[in-house]
Write a sequence for this structure.
């Protein structure tokens, strides 16, 4: 059920979805074609007004002037620097102006492909949790049959994903250094677009019924959420009994995202596991681990790089894990 404010015969661009459960009837807005399906919609909207009301029609010089005025550590700069980092890795390989050689774009696509290779085969529908600017969801559409849904909490990043989907184009401000950004705009392949969509959702409260997906992926996101175990349990819940998935994490714990009691490893150096995350994660993905997921393959050390600016990049070693639903194993 929906109120349609703006749309075409193919899609809803702006409007309100209503939960059909008669005891609920909660409203979920669709803004610029992106449904916002989170538990506390009011809070999400009030905390993300910057993202939701950002305009994309300003000239480059006015955008840079705004960025200079807002300064570093402003919400404006934090949004554009994060978007720059992920748009570069996800889509930079298609940018004809891209000359950077220090950090090769495409590391998320390589990471996902390696995980899918571990699985052998995968079936739809697909959920890509923490998809950011969307490249992994496109890779999934190319490799797995059926519908693919990319989900993330960051509305600005999903705008980039949606541009790729609808326009076959990526536009972003690419950070050169400090507060200096260059505008980049280039075509990207968007095969499979008719099977893809992007929604705002919270990985810790996935808005789906049990067993809904044949494949679930979540790359480099577990260490970005307050409760990583809840994410694993949620993935186990929405995965079909014969479903499978790919997880990856560099265990880059930080209290900005997760309090130490929620970390998978990274503390308790004098304890049994001496602070290692890998055995704990394997335990959570074993029978009785409580997540409903079973590890069926892994690459302990896969390169995943994120570019910050012309002279800085972070090079991670991410742990790629193939899982199946426990029922299948
Ligand atoms: C480190 S980035 C990784 C992005 C992408 N998967 C990749 O590997 O390039 C983590 C992503 O998770 C998203 N994220 C963080 N917390 C989330 C949550 N609770 N629900 C959904 N997405 C979340 C962030 O917005 C960001 O896009």
């Amino acid at each position: 059920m929906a109120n349609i404010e703006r749309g075409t015969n193919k899609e809803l661009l702006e409007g309100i979805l209503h939960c059909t459960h008669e005891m609920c009837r909660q409203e979920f807005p669709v803004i610029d074609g992106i449904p916002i399906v989170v538990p506390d919609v009011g809070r999400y909207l009030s905390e993300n007004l910057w993202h939701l009301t950002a305009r994309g029609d300003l000239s480059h010089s006015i955008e840079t002037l705004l960025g200079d005025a807002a300064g570093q550590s402003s919400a404006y700069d934090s949004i554009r620097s994060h978007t720059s980092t992920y748009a570069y890795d996800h889509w930079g390989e298609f940018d004809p102006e891209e000359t950077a050689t220090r950090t090769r774009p495409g590391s998320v696509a390589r990471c996902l492909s390696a995980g899918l290779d571990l699985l052998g085969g995968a079936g739809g529908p697909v959920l890509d949790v923490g998809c950011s600017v969307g490249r992994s969801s496109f890779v999934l559409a190319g490799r797995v049959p059926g519908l693919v849904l990319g989900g993330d909490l960051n509305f600005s990043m999903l705008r980039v994903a949606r541009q790729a989907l609808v326009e076959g184009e990526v536009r972003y401000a690419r950070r050169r250094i400090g507060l200096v950004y260059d505008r980049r705009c280039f075509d990207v392949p968007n095969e499979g677009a008719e099977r893809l969509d992007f929604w705002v959702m919270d990985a810790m409260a996935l808005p789906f019924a049990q067993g809904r997906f044949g494949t679930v992926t979540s790359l480099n996101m577990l260490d970005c959420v307050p409760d990583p175990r809840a994410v694993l349990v949620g993935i186990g819940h929405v995965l079909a009994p014969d479903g499978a998935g790919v997880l990856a994490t560099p265990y880059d714990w930080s209290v900005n995202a997760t309090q130490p009691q929620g970390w998978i490893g990274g503390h308790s150096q004098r304890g049994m596991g001496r602070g290692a995350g890998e055995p704990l994660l394997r335990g959570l993905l074993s029978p009785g681990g409580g997540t409903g997921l079973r590890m069926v393959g892994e690459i302990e050390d896969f390169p995943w790089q994120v570019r910050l600016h012309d002279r800085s990049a972070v090079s991670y070693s991410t742990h790629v894990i193939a899982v199946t639903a426990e029922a299948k194993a």
Observations:
- The chain has a mean pLDDT of 95.
- The CA atoms of residues 206 and 234 lie 6 Å apart.
- The first helix runs from residue 41 to 47.
